[in-house]
Amino acid sequence: MPEKVFCSAVSSYPWTLRSNLLLHWRFGALTMLVFLGMAAVWTIDGCNVKSFVEGWRFRREYLTHGHLNLTYTDEITLNLSYIPIRNPSSELDFQLSFPANLTNTELESEPETETKREPETEPEPETELQPADVLGSSESYQNLTQPSWISVELEPNLTSNLLARWLAPGGEPCREIRSVEIAIPGLDGRQLIELPAGETHEFVFNALYDAGKPSCLGGDYFETDLSGEAWKSRPVVKDFGNGSYSLSLQVHPDFSGDYNLSITLLYRHFEGLKLSPARFAYNKELRKIPIKFYNATSQLPQLQTCRKSDFNREVWAGRWTRHGRNDDCQISNDGRYRCLPPNFPCRNPWCDGALGKLESNGWVYSAHCSFRLFSADSAWNCLKNRWIFLWGDSNHVDTVRNILNFILNLPTESVPRRFDMNFTNPKNPTQTVRITSIFNGHWNETLNYQGLNSLKNDAFRDLLKSYFNESTVPDTIIMNSGLHDGIYWHNLRGFTVGARDAAAFWAEILESIRRRGLTPPEVIYRTTVATGGYARTMAFNPSKMEAFNWVVLDKLKTAGLLSGVIDDFDMTFPWHFDNRCNDGVHYGRKPAKMKWRDGLIGHQYFVDIMLAHVLLNALCAH
């Protein structure tokens, strides 16, 4: 930083008076420029007095509560006696008359600069992992307690803790460090990696900066993928906040075989949360590791069909499994992939219903429970005489259209961003459902990029309230937000205020319903998608969307609004690495036999069809 220069107010040398006056003029101009620059930076950061005080309070709260483990908790499995189950590649007891080859098988107001400076002193981690934390760094972590699937939970005080970590610089030695590599002692350097299926395998790894030394900052965003011939999942990553992380792997014994584990470093130290994150994206695949999972004695609990209570879980850790395949499947003239017969059955316990109707060529999603795939009759029986209110972005619009076309058998070319309509079962006129959908990307339905800030518009607020002032009110509210918020909100601090205000708005509506003696609707939050392909480095990148999802869930939960959660982020993540199943921000665009974003003809739309069935599960489960 330049040294300060002292200039006397009046020169003792008359011949220098003119130069002193000039110097004073320059000093005043410089002072004004600095002041204007600071004001501009504060404006860019979206910081006002209220949010600054709130950020200062969060920092004090962080210092009071100490170290934070933000992201995940998991349950570990155990070895039990294993009862052999048929391999997914075995034949189904189902007769097919179908074509051949069908097999069953960081403060934001600081200048955003890309220049890196070598730290003067060697950084040391803020906290040192205790031995218990590094179990499994060289071998899989096996716990001799009750077996269980890996699970994920939101921690208490999530928003304040997340803000504290985002604001914390990590100390002078750590401030300028940016990770460029990782070291995984339990996986690196091994020629052949074989792990027993069914068990949880936890590996601790360290982020390394460009000197090859361990980083002492957390907040790196790793994209993980575990894929086999009939399995795709996102391995859970824990952030210890000091440059060390853990990775947990688990595959069900039914799907033992050869897998690839990939780890991509997308952003370093919360840089994905910046207003303009594209130039900060690292986006480098650091590992692609072949792993063989073999059958062992461990047996995971069998999944059960989802009940109403299962939707109380706020964060999911699911997987996509494949139970059929047609390698000769071709796109039809209407852009659809009818690869399996419509009545091709699900395999228990991974789903219940006709898998062929997903048009996924055998793929289906399950989480801590499995999902029912609805027929038109069962869907109408569930929805009859109900009022469903949706408040969200254009992905909601796609999903409603797909429910009408693919499930309710109501051919619909398109649906508008804002509508309120009654739909009737063509086979049974006594069965009707009212669906209201209000776009929240902007208070003006023809515009974008306001998100939760759309509630600042009085007319938009009055519009929403009007639907809840009728003699009857909706049975269920399904809401989401995120993509438009990623562009509007300048930083995480600003978004937390927006999410808090949105929760307060909806809490006020529900309370007004109670005061009228009516039963308020249930509120289901559908998390924002994991943006795909090119969109992974944009203002609505997965790192930012996941953090925004956590904040909204935390605020809705604090306000006592949540009746259930559908984790569409987890559902879409395994398919977000390219644009085959999405156009970057939508997973349910209408099928069409035309050139897609990735240059191929047609696109896969089944991920959103799966979401449509999951929504019906949440609405209809008991």
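Second entry:
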Amino acid sequence: MIACGGVMYISRVLCFPISLRSVSIALPTLLSCISCICAYVLAREVKGPGAGLLAAALIAISPGYLSRSTPGNFDNESLALPLTLLTLSFWTLSLKSKTTPPPLLTGLSQSLTLAAWGGGIFLPNLISLHTLLLLIKASGISFRVLYVAYSTYYITSIAMVTAMPWGGELGEGARGEYLGMFGTWTKGSYAVIDPLSTSEQSPLIASVAEHQPASWSSLYHDLHLCLPLFIPGARALLTNCPNISEWDINSFLIFAALASLYCANVMVRLVVLPSGVLAVVAGVGISELLTGLKRLANGYQTRKKTKKNVGRPSSAPVTMGLVTLGVITLLTFHLRHCAYASLRVYSTPSVVLSAQGKGGKHLILDDFREGFAWLKANAKGTGGGKGRVMSWWDYGYQIREMGGQDVLVDNSAWNKSHIATVGRIFASSEEDAYQLLRRYDIQYVWVVFGGRVGYSRDDVSKFLWISRIVEDVYPDHPQAMFLTPSGEYSVDESAPKALLSSLLYKLCYFRFSELTPSNGRPTGFDSARGVEIGSKQIELKFLEEAYTSKHWLVRIYRVRTGMIR
């Protein structure tokens, strides 16, 4: 918000005022341009201008970065990545120079990254570990240069961190850890180092999809050819060094790429880190391939002019042709993939779903916006004002902003007990849930159900996490009561009575068995989970159905008033 407010203020000073909303929409694209410049500078410092241009081109179309740089997708990472690349560039200059401005700028840019994004803790740990490795290795960089660079950077960082707020979820506790005895090694850093630590975190934090370990398919989708091109890029950085100090400087970029890739494997949200650093290393790798091709062509022309090689056949033209064709094919393949990811994945609104119907027909599922429109037009609260809607916390912001209603919880994860209370209402029987709904003055309940269209990311699938979050705050509601005797989560006939009688189960599957099944399936067949539901005759006493969207993705229920338990 500070960045948006600053841009808006500058625009007004320059006499062309821009609204805060317009700035928020356009700023991610502007910041991506800065990221391209930073990638160019970083690659140019270690390889040359050609590698810089290729690195800028690769990061400009990187799917992993497009997820944070498309217009309107303004998030902490949108501001953090250009600052991260800027920090890496300044630290590289710090190791090359014998002056204090580059280390000062390194500390300044790193502090801005920490203020914008909690994941910026990656940077101080990275720089500290690399410096330690250089000291252990007996680096080719003189001890005086290393001492001046790190001391200046560290003092600047400490001074800035004590004066600036930290972003993300780190807060004052992480600031204390950063300034504590162990320097920059924090609990957040350990959570990234240890892949198993996610299971030891709060269930609320662990339930977020972006906090899960990344799969190979998601990494390949977001990084694509930058992954295999890392190998020739690393080879070029380590083999073409005129002296040992250059080798130490180039190793920092490889160390940063490997560390960021490991972080992305542990937490999928951090894939934005390797998308920037790997683009730089991949740009160096392509530049090395093209440089080798140029040397091969020059050598062929030189041999061709010598008399002793006149008339002798040469395989150089064939080799050059094959290498050129291979590079062009790879880059074309990469460009097509990035265009597809930009069009189909990162340019689609999150509230509008798309699917393929029979015969490959493209279907648009606009149920979420239909639900928001219904709330805005029909929901009424006590006294005729705004209604209060209860939903799982994923949809809070959208219901409030697009549906125009008050919500019990929103997407902020600061109040764990409040979110657990919503989970407790969903996990309770209808009779018990009604008392809590009336206590919190809830008029409407919003649930997302994908059993008809096969949407597997609905509230039924999330109930496993909901029950874990409830147990963490309310031990009298253990998760085991919603699992089968074998410890599995299922909605079919093997589901326990506690699950079948829970409010969430009844709201999602109410009247579901009345639908006409397709493809010879039995009534009440859940397409998202591929099973026949265990309870089909569902009746509601304390709530009534108010709205169900076209594809049954959104179901809204009205809480009855005047009901006596």
